[in-house]
Amino acid sequence: MNRSCVQLKDLPDELLIFVFKQMNNVEVLYSLFGVDERFDSILQDPIFTNRLNFLKWSSKKFLNIFSPDIIFDRFCLQILPAVREKIQWLGIDSSSMKQILHATHYPNLHGLGLFNIEKETIKSLFTETLNLSLSISVKEVFIDEHNLRSKIVNHLSRLSKFTFDIHSIMNINHDTILPSNEDIRNTFKDFKYTQMICYMDHFLDRKECRYHAYTYPSRMSYYQFTSNRFPGGYYPYVHFVSLYDEHAFEHELFLRIAQSFPLIQKLVLNNAKRQQYKQSYKSTNDNCHLSSIVEYSHLIELDVQWAHDDYIEEFLCDRKACFHKNIRLYVVDDALLRVIKHFTREDTRMNCTKVDNLLVWAEWRSSKCFQ
Fold first, then answer.
1. How far is C-alpha 31 from the geometric centre of its chain's CA atoms?
2. How many helices (H) and strands (E) does the chain have?
3. Of 28-32, 86-90, 134-138, 148-152, which one has max mean pLDDT?
């Protein structure tokens, strides 16, 4: 360990971040937290501390990453109290639940993944209020009101408040017969707990259909697979958004995203389709043009490595986007150079100065890191 730590210390921060991100963040925290002040500073970044999952999937079941009590003792006595304010989500099972939850106070915890939990334990835990977040692959039927009632609600007799965020994912082929969006929506018409939003996406390239249903107003902390069908709304608790579609994203969608997610900190974009209606700007002093600039007040991490050049331009052109904070940018090197015209393009200079960490991938997916 001493030799490996000396070698790690020789690396710049950007390479350390890249190396650590390829590893399980819980294992990295256990191995390196407390070894060196510089490591501690890096490991307290939200990338490594906001979501801690103490389980791994193995042989069709979830297992604890750490089994000896001495390891859990170090986590509960030293590491969790030190990073408690950064933790937003915990993944635990029945064997470690009590020890981890009692280790410290988690002021910003708003998500809990419980695994290997017996039905009777769930009944005793969730008696009056339940916030359910679920992403599940289904074969023939999307999750609807009947599923929620028969599997969950009917087993919680004292439940008075129930909110949910459910992604149902179905593999499709040419013979698959799908219900309409309205058909599934109607299954929730008698749901008494709250207002809900639902919509369906067909991704033919992926041979996949996704149905997203959630209660509104929402307390979800992330919004994934956001497509052009995104219905809008106001989501003040969302910090992470991923965008994906097989149709182009136009500038108007990014305006809606910024308005709907005012506290977004991390944005991941995956779209290979070029824009059809690219904005044309002649003067940054034009009030109309200024009103169409997307303001990202809290964004600190942007990943466009799987995006068409047009979307890199969407963020780097100062006539289309404005960053209030410095950001970490993930991008493919050739695409970046094309957009900024090898550092000669004037209207990208301002936003490029906001990039304080740049992780650049070559076309063959190797990583290069620059400060």
1. 25
2. 16, 18
3. 86-90
Other CB atoms within a 10 A radius of the CB of residue 187 amount to 18
Candidates 145, 133, 142, 132; CA nearest to 188 is 145
Single out the residue of 184, 191, 155, 186 nearest to residue 168, CA to CA: 184
Task: Note down the domain range covering 32.
Answer: 1-112
CB 334 within 8 Å of CB 305: no
Name the domain count of the chain: 2
Q: Which of 112, 142, 167 is the last residue of a domain?
A: 112
Q: Are 84 and 102 in contact (CB under 8 A)?
A: no
What confidence category does residue 73 fall into, taking pLDDT thresholds of 50, 70 and 90? Answer: confident
Quick: pLDDT tens for 233-252: 999 999 999 999 999 999 99
Question: How far apart (Å, rounded) are the C-alpha atoms in residues 187 and 196?
Answer: 12
Cα gap 314→308, rounded to integer Å? 10
- Write out 163-179 in H/E/C secondary structure: EEEEEEEEECCCCCCCC
